[in-house]
Amino acid sequence: MVELVSLDRFLELRESLNIVDVRSPVEYDHAHIPESFNIPLFSNEQRAEIGWTYKHKGQDVAILLGESFAEPKIPTYLEQVKILARHKKILLLCARGG
To answer: Residues in domain Rhodanese (predicted)?
Structure first.
């Protein structure tokens, strides 16, 4: 089940959840919630390429590029999340539309 939560609700749930931050490693390193796990959807290079594509070729092309980067990694993402979900529910954190 997927549920969007407000910041206040997030703060209430924080102690009982594993927080998974799906932002790129550089974004995670810049600032992240303590004790969160980084399972990035994109590498730093892929994130930069998607950003450039968005700016120069448009949103639709950037979305397709992002999907092409992420789709082959879905089994790995799911396995990592499955391991974390054995003990606690998961809260996913992303920036923008990630």
So the answer is: 13-98
pLDDT, tens digit, 9 for 90 and up, residues 1-56: 667 778 888 888 888 889 999 999 999 999 998 889 999 999 999 999 999 999 99
- First-to-last C-alpha distance (Å) of the chain: 18
32 in a structural domain:
no
Query: Annotated active-site positions, please?
Result: 94
Whether residue 74 lies inside any domain: the answer is yes
Do residues 59 and 66 make contact, with C-beta atoms less than 8 angstroms apart?
no
Rg (CA), the chain: 14
CB-facing half-sphere around the CA of 11: CA atoms within 13 A:
3
